[in-house]
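Catalogue entry: protein

Sequence with per-residue tokens
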Amino acid sequence: MCRILGVKSNNYYSYQKRYSTKSEDPTHQEMIDWVKDIAHFSDNTYGERRIQKVLNALGFPVSRHKTAQLMKEANVWVRYKKKYKVTTNSDHNKPIYPNVLEQNFNVEAADQAWVQDITYVWTAEGWLYLAVVIDLYSRKVVGWSMGSRMKAQLVCDALTMAMWQRQPKAGLIIHSDQGVQYASHQYRRLLKSNDFIGSMSKKGCCWDNAVAESFFGSLKQERVHWKNYPTRYEAQQDVMNYICMWYNSRRLHSYLNYQSPNDFEERTETLDMVS
């Protein structure tokens, strides 16, 4: 038969084995349907690892290799990353904080250490600047602020929001880069009045603030780079939707063993109550 068809016998039997396996597996089509649903749910931002974790949670004990095959059959694609520019200005003579955090991104409880940073979003009206505050424990965005100007008030508003939501105690470490906004008198006064400990990255070292950089990478890759915003208001609403309705509440985070920040915090609180 192989000679008549003009194909190699090993290729023929390999194909026959794959085809028969799929035919004998009653869940195969169900998994493909789930892969399509997961891709749609994540707006095509989930790759092999996250889709595998969701399938496993649904009761399908598939490997990463099997997941990749299912994605191919389901014609599922993943959004790729694009580069973005540095927005903060570290070339100034203002006082800076020492690097207290020292890339220690693993903390034992909520509200022990926060990181801050600024990024930008392009709209037809011009730039929209976004400042965020992230809790290192759960990777949750606990504060944010947006505006058309990248002033000290922007980062102070984001921090004030985080303080209002979380009510942190004195001694909280707050880390940022050496941007002029974080070196401003207004910002330093806010930290001092609440007995917070300021910390700053070494100049030009993005790894010292890797968690905030990672969040901005996800925001740009998964949402912003795929949109054309006519106004700053529309961009602001979409970014807020991403933070509240997706990143904090639903997006699976590899650092959290593929839980969302909200789920991670809720389960931790439940365990603390039980213990």
